[in-house]
Amino acid sequence: MFHKSKIKLAALVGIALSVVSLLVHLLLANYSSGNITQYKIYVDDFYPIGQQQKLRSRKLWGPVSSLDALQPFANPRKFYPVPSEQNGFIYAKIHGGFDKIRSSICDLVAVSRLLNATLVIPEIQESLRSKGISSKFKSFSYIYNEEQFITALASDVIIVKSLPLDLKEARKKTKFPTISLRKSASPSFFIREVLPKLKQSKVVGLVITNGRCLESILPPSMVEYQRLRCRVAFHALQFRQEIQELGNRLVERLRASGRPYLAYHPGLVRDTLAFHGCAELFQDVHTELIQYRRQQMIKLGTLKEELSVDSVARKKNGSCPLMPEEVGLLLRALGYPPNTIIYLAGAETFGGQRILIPLRAMYSNLVDRSSLCSERELFNLIGPESPLPSNMPHPPPIKSEKQLIEEWKRAGPRPRPLPPPPARPFYQHEKEGWYGWISETDIEPDPSPMDLRMQAHRLLWDALDYYVSIEADAFFPGFNNDGRGWPDYSGLIMGHRLYQKASGMTYRPDRKSIVELFGTLNDHLYHPPRNWTISLRELLNKSAGVDGFVAEARLLKPTSFLSHPLPECSCRASNLIGSASPEKDSYGQLVYGGEDECPEWIKRGLAIVSAEVSDDDEGDLPEEDDEAQEQPESDANRSSEQDEEMDPDD
């Protein structure tokens, strides 16, 4: 009897242990699987989720009623068929990142139309330089859909995938003239310099760098070429299917909780920081990396300034990006709650995760593609790649302490990170990576095969983030060039959002005014006075409306038409809003108020949508009171000793 009891007890214990083991395995599988997104957006119960859409303030998420009448309309206003006889073929090599590629392609199509030439699908050098990336997607098709590009522009330009075989062989033997374009050229340049060569040799090659090919502002007689640029950028240049599908999944995940989301692009790119002289805003090795790139730009003639400039003065002038901590304070002053979902866009954030710590402390739902996608989803986007060659250069041998000290003594006055204290040697991981060379040599080495592959991958990450940013309920740029330099990532997003839905909430912050406001706070950074918050809120709300729209247009349009594709690529539904007073830029070109009246089919569609929205809003709860979003009076009167400031290094 006793023996049978022991058997039953052992069996019960075994069953209990099996159940516990099964639960543990299920729990581990839930958090460790590579195919499951691990990050879950935090949602509190301050508002019922079902009513969240009704309670959100229009001042935070839009639409901007003053811009509601502007509608996208890039169709030709007059018929102009593709000429039957072509002057020849134009092929192009495009150097640069995502933003420069997109701008260059739009200019290239307009130039092909101007010269009555057949355009060969342009070559994207950033992907061709990398050996062994997916054989399924090459050059142009690495980002964009080739078939859509050709079909959408069939009424404008004849586009082919490659040169005929006989011309392709002649191109390999460099029998055709090649023209290098380092800056924007006028239409007369292409008519005068390029067209004769095209007619003579039947093939001309263009090498485009810095994202510039055709000048931004064209004469009024060439308004159809401006609309052609819009059709290229906003209709023909569609991402390949895999990018669009993953982008749609990201948008669904961001909105799964029933909340809107804000996209934020920091603009902290090494080239941008070097071009505008913002090196001293960073510390130690980052400052030196920026200065090295600035020196390269001066040697190449891209930049015509001194190497060393006053970064603080540049910051006060609005020439440098807003730091993530400053953006967090701006969003908090605007009234965005701490659980706001913020999507971090851009493949490069110079300075890494360290500078994002203050923003993440203020907004815990700061997410990016890596936290919303599984590794398998990102791998499928890249596609199968060949393994890197085994004969890759090996890192230099580890140097002894004596050798390091001798090299330090011979380094001279060149600014370097301070040498390590005796008890703290350099670790090997500090010498590895894309910046590791700076502790070993004075010259940046050529990119390795892995570096080239990562640069190609950045095109995919930028394309994915671009898609998510366009669909965002609100967009906040940490930096855009404001007409100083090449077309940039944030500027293209702002232009695309402006074309697609002008009334969408897109902030256009005046960085100079913002820096001046921050300068008045001193020790009250995290607990600003009430009048400061009201002033800042008024400034940023204006930037999202007509005032910011016009001010930004005067700066952006002279250098990048795609950053402000209005009024040429829009129409005004005048039955929805009164006529606007025309606004012109420094060139005398209209930037607002000169739009054509929308055709009747657009007006009818808007009237139907407006009626449906009115029916849906009948049962909505009233909007949040602005005063409820203001900071408590007690916060405004706190002393500097009570400021709960956060140390980013903690």
UniProtKB/TrEMBL annotation:
Q: Which domain of life is it from?
A: Eukaryota
Pfam families according to UniProt: O-FucT
Q: Which InterPro entries match?
A: GDP-Fuc_O-FucTrfase
The entry's localization annotation reads:
Membrane
Stretches with biased composition (Acidic residues): 613-633
MF terms (GO), sorted A to Z: glycosyltransferase activity
GO cellular component labels: Golgi apparatus; membrane
Q: How does it sit in the membrane?
A: Single-pass type II membrane protein
UniProt entry keywords in alphabetical sequence: Carbohydrate metabolism, Fucose metabolism, Glycoprotein, Glycosyltransferase, Membrane, Signal-anchor, Transferase, Transmembrane, Transmembrane helix
Its pathway is:
Glycan metabolism
- Which family does the similarity line name? Belongs to the glycosyltransferase GT106 family.
List the residue ranges of the region (Disordered): 612-650
What is an annotated GO biological process for this record, any one?
fucose metabolic process
Can you say what this protein is called? O-fucosyltransferase family protein
